[in-house]
Design brief:
single chain, alpha/beta, 21 helices, binds flavin-adenine dinucleotide, binds iron/sulfur cluster
């Protein structure tokens, strides 16, 4: 029987997406239509095309790389493909003749195990899923007990940035070097812009993220040695001059399929077992991958297509042009200006900047959740619908009415002030909710609670913030001013 070709999507590029490294022929497809339909960050387009072209070069004669308008023009059966990462791709596969779909790879918990865990629960909380996954996979377990005696070291991992420093004392990952393939990709994208009417957002720049399994492995090894030991304590902190802090910068590599997440987690545990990294940092990191990453992947499928359109708070406002177009020059708020600049220039900022600056702003301003999710998916090098939908619709925008979180991630300027060094250089004052220098996050927070008071009235975790709101003498006035705010 003739061997089926293995079709690899652009997020299935590591060795674990092939069974038979030596023989099975491989099909790789670049669909220009994908880039025509949506405006992606230029550096994201570069990363994806470069990764596909590098994989094709690695596989040599075994691989055919087709550049086409539509996938269906290039995929001729008999072909097999691992379960893709979006509903649109799954529908496409199902519509093609003689294409066999294999189970998903690139995640740790099996779909059936997630469904067994989730069915019948009113709330799917990360903490419950994560503990179950630790037990099921025997990660950071000492027999039946969690390693270090606790499941959760979040309490040790929420420190503000150290005082008086502009950067954490950890070495950044070594720079990556572009090669001829990157040069070809850059020329190709220039041509698409010039001749094909394809548009991008954000600035071009040197490639900052791995495109081969080898580059991703080198970044992982550097992280395990230099950054994992200090990953935990300042996980939630922000420093203007330290864009990376102790984060791993592995999301783009994991999401391109260059790294196997179970192997990453096991190697992090190994660092703990050999005494090279403390439990709070290792647990914090394992929680991100075995916990959060797998959890959002499964939530994407489990909640079904309607989840993408959830809008529990009836947030309907459009994204302002300066935000949609990554144009920080119109922004005065120091935190927002810096984060938006970094997105424009690199297509990446770390978790707390996404959640507590960008997501917090969108939530407070009633921006339409599906538009916000789409913006994140297009503007970030690691953005994909499966990861964006739960993170944005569920976690950051509370548009699911609280199926994934117990309360909305809304916070005023006091939080940003405590967790960053932004406010010192800002024309606004985080303590002021009214007046000429009122912080847009502080005023925005109280206005958000004021507007959605009824939606949160029955939530016991919102009782205290609503009680504080009731004691504000100027709540109506703050809400009215914030509704008119144009200066950010
Ligand atoms: C509004 C919002 C949008 C986000 N969009 C994306 C996205 O498009 N793609 C993406 O991979 N992550 C996304 N995240 C999750 C997280 O912010 C990024 O994974 C992380 O910042 C990537 O940087 P890092 O690799 O240095 O992560 P680290 O802080 O070093 O964490 C290690 C790894 O854990 C995983 N991880 C941690 N948190 C999450 C999470 N909530 N969801 C999924 N994986 C997680 C990532 O693979 C990451 O590489 C988003 C979070 C929020 C709040
Ligand atoms: S004062 Fe407000 S807007 Fe300015 S940096 Fe602080 S939180 Fe951001």
């Amino acid at each position: 029987m003739a061997t089926r070709r293995r079709w690899l999507f652009a997020d299935q590029l590591g060795p674990h997406f092939l069974d038979d490294e030596a023989r099975q022929p491989v099909l790789l497809v670049i669909s220009k239509g994908v880039f025509r339909r949506k405006v992606y960050h230029r550096q994201k387009a570069h990363l994806v095309l470069s990764a596909l072209r590098h994989r094709a070069a690695e596989l040599g004669d075994r691989a055919e790389l087709v550049v086409t308008e539509r996938y269906r023009d290039a995929v001729q059966g008999p072909v097999e493909v691992c379960h893709p990462t979006s509903r649109a791709a799954r529908d496409l596969i199902r519509s093609l003749p003689d294409v066999t779909m294999l189970p998903p790879r690139g995640y740790i918990t099996a779909p059936a195990d997630f469904v067994r865990w989730a069915d019948g629960r009113p709330r799917l909380l990360l903490e419950d899923f994560y503990r179950d996954a630790r037990r099921r996979h025997g990660i950071l377990m000492d027999a039946a007990e969690p390693a270090g005696g606790r499941w959760n070291f979040d309490g040790d991992n929420r420190e503000p940035p150290p005082r008086g420093v502009r950067a954490l004392a950890v070495p950044p990952p070594p720079d990556l070097f572009e090669d001829d393939i990157d040069g070809e990709v850059r020329a190709e994208l220039d041509r698409w812009e010039r001749e094909d009417g394809i548009r991008f957002v954000g600035r071009d720049g040197p490639r900052r993220f791995p495109v081969t399994a080898g580059e991703a492995e080198a970044r992982l090894a550097h992280f395990l040695e230099h950054r994992l030991p200090v990953f935990g304590p300042h996980e939630d902190a922000m420093l203007r001059d330290d864009p990376l802090m102790a984060h791993s910068l592995l999301s783009a590599s994991l999401n391109l399929g260059l790294l196997d997440p179970l192997a990453v987690v096991e190697r992090a545990e190994h660092e703990y077992r050999r005494g090279a990294a403390p439990i709070n940092s290792v647990e914090g990191f394992v929680r991100q991958i075995l916990g959060w990453r797998d959890y959002v992947w499964h939530c994407y499928w489990y909640f079904g297509p309607s989840f993408e359109h959830r809008d529990a708070l009836h947030a309907r406002r459009r994204l302002p042009a300066w935000f949609a177009d990554l144009d920080p020059d119109h922004v005065e708020a120091a935190c927002l200006r810096d984060v938006l600049t970094k997105v424009r220039d690199t297509g990446w900022v770390h978790h707390i900047q996404r959640l507590m600056v960008l997501g917090n702003l969108a939530l407070q301003r009633d921006w339409h959740p599906a538009d916000v999710a789409d913006w994140f998916a297009r503007c970030f090098v690691d953005g994909y619908p499966w990861v964006m939908t739960p993170n944005v619709i569920g976690m950051s925008q509370y548009a699911d009415g609280g199926r994934m979180t117990t309360k909305p991630y809304a916070a005023g300027g006091a939080y940003i002030n405590r967790m960053s060094d932004y406010c010192g250089g800002c024309p606004f004052d985080p303590k002021h909710r009214a007046g000429a220098d009122a912080c847009p996050f502080t005023g925005g927070y109280w206005a958000f609670l004021h507007r959605h008071r009824d939606a949160f009235a029955a939530n016991h975790r919102m009782r205290q913030p609503l009680a504080l709101l009731d004691r504000l003498p100027d709540a109506d006035e703050v809400a009215a001013i914030e509704a008119r705010r144009r200066n950010f």
